[in-house]
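Q: How would the structure tokens look for this protein?
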Amino acid sequence: MQGDEVGEVDPRSSNFAVSQSEKNISMDKNKYPKGWNRKRVQEVIDHVESRTEEETIAEDETAFEQDYTAMQVPRKLVPIVRQLIVMVDEKGDVSI
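A: Here is the predicted structure in token form.
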């Protein structure tokens, strides 16, 4: 019979020590940015999926009212853009 030999544990028994959530976490091969983990990513997914269409539109409109924007930048220019942002932040204005 399987699981009856010394040192073996039957995963169907109540003695099986690893929960399914622990197994999922230990099997997670994703690499997350600093401060992020599987739980935080799942919370963001849950938030986005739980919003109504009206809530989604309101959140998007709020983002456009802020002083920031998102844009695509060629990867090789990212370091230069970051330097420009630091320069602006240090001066407190946009005159470079």
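The chain has one domain: 20-91.

The radius of gyration is 24 Å.

Upvote if useful.
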